[in-house]
Amino acid sequence: MKDIILTGDRPTGRLHLGHYVGSLRRRVELQNSGKFDEIYIMIADSQALTDNADNPEKVRRNILEVALDYMSVGLDPKVTTMFIQSQVPALFEFTAYYMNLVTVSRLQRNPTIKEEIKQRGFETSIPVGFLNYPVSQAADITAFDATCVPVGEDQMPLIEQTKEIVHSFNRIYGDVLVNPKIMLAENEVCQRLPGIDGKAKMSKSLGNCIYLADTSEDVRKKVMSMYTDPNHIRVQDPGTVEGNTVFTYLDCFCKDKHFEKYLPEYHNLDELKDHYRRGGLGDVKIKKFLFNVLEDTLQPIRQRRQELEKDIDYVMSVLHEGCIKANKKANATLKRAKDAMKINYFDNDEDSISEYYKKP
Ligand code: ATP
Ligand code: MG
Q1: Is 152's C-beta closer than 6 angstroms to any atom of ligand 1?
Q2: Is the CB of 66 under 6 A from ligand 1?
Q3: Which burial class, exposed, middle or buried, applies to 327 when counting CB atoms under 10 A from its CB (0-12, 13-18, 19+)?
Q4: Which domains does the chain have, with CATH numbers?
Q5: Predicted confidence (pLDDT) per residue in 273-313, tens digit
Q6: What pLDDT is recorded for position 8?
């Protein structure tokens, strides 16, 4: 069996540090490891429309933003197929068949969906498409025979749902679909990066993000406004590290080499944390350090983005070619699935439905 990656992002805004530590950074590592036979990264515009149907312009505008972010962090079109979900019709066909294998109550019990319904204020007016997006996500994953899905922790219940669909489908129609495995960031704090306001998740919809494309000045301002320990008022006060967003970000981004470069009076993050806990270490100092650490990652990304922005036609051509390749793959899987479901009335004589009449 081939090792295949599929994952993606909704074009509801530019990508942010949460995407980076939760999934993007890993994708690039996996891509460069050379261990995968095929890699598909999808811009999930159809999924974005399930809760943005009244704002199609937002989704349309952000397709290129996400593509630029992909290529700026190091996703390489020579190795990785980047494509747009709506341009692959087979995915909708898969979705339609999978909908018969899932109950409405099962979707309503999905913890991620429940949280997102609350967050978006849908109450009882939930768009059918939104409730159904876990099913369409199962279509995306299985259409590409994905074995590995690198995502953030909020996606766990969605991958669970995909596995259930694979199980039901294969039980009824034979061993057709590949069972995917979720791949979370190794560092637990990276699996769900909080927002700069300290809220549980950095999310485009919550407006608490540091974007990969933010200017250096934007990043500085955002870091300086970050939530820390509300009881750490004077420098000499002992401070708390747990739940302190600056330290959470340092946990995700900081390496020992950063101390050598920007804060040589400490050797590592443990020493910095100990000092903060004891008291005598001010928020401004740790924020300035975090700014430098983040800039170490963000500067090269920003530079590559600026280069790519000068040649948008090239970025468009990458997406266009990606869609062609994605269609080829998804159509082949769909053919396999429909053969197994016997939805292939005109394909070959032995299996034709007219056989019922021809038999003596
Ligand atoms: P939206 O608010 O429109 O849902 P989002 O910011 O949640 O946008 P998605 O496009 O839904 O972003 O998520 C894309 C991928 O990034 C998923 O794998 C998700 O788990 C991961 N991800 C998103 N936010 C974070 C975060 N704060 N920490 C870790 N991973 C994240
Ligand atoms: Mg999301």
Answers
A1: yes
A2: no
A3: middle
A4: 4-192+312-358 (3.40.50.620), 216-308 (1.10.240.10)
A5: 999 999 999 999 999 999 999 999 999 999 999 999 999 99
A6: 96
